[in-house]
Amino acid sequence: MIETTVLNFLSGKLRVPVLAEVPEKPPGSFAVVEKTGGGRSTGLKQATVAVQSYGETLLQAARLDDDVVEAMAELATLTGVGACRLVRDYNFTDTANRRYRYQAVFEIVYY
């Protein structure tokens, strides 16, 4: 599963917890990996993956987002991953729960 690959990869690169979902009692800063789409063609798989970076301040969330983007630039060095491209990243503050958050969206080709 590409979600597990990205989660494990980022866990080794970031200094914050990297999770598959927002916990009930979240830590101050953390990242969440979510596959939002995908497909298959000629033996290759494609996935759209969103990584949400949470921080206690907007600046912390933005810095974590930068760290995520830098780390994901190296994802294609893994065996089984052919390419990883940043589609976009943006402020995605969770106003309902009052949590600062950025989101980076990536297109990943893997096999």
Protein model, in words:
It is built from two helices and five strands; from the N terminus they run αβββαββ. The protein has helices at 2-13, 58-72; strands spanning 18-19, 30-41, 44-55, 81-91, 100-110. The chain has a five-stranded mixed sheet. It is elongated and about 45 Å long. The model has no long low-confidence stretch (mean pLDDT 97).
SSE map:
Elements: H1 2-13, E1 18-19, E2 30-41, E3 44-55, H2 58-72, E4 81-91, E5 100-110
Parallel strand pairs: 1-2
Antiparallel strand pairs: 2-3, 3-5, 4-5
Helix and strand element order: HEEEHEE
Cα Rg: 14 Å
Quote the distance from N terminus to C terminus: 10 Å
Biggest sheet character: 5 strands, mixed
The fraction of residues in strands falls at: 35-45%
Mean pLDDT: 97
> Which structural class should the secondary elements be placed in?
alpha+beta
Q: Please give the count of helices.
A: 2
How would you sum up the global shape? Answer: elongated
Spatial order of the strands in the main sheet? 1-2-3-5-4
Give the beta-strand count: 5
Uncertain ranges: none
Helix content: 10-25%
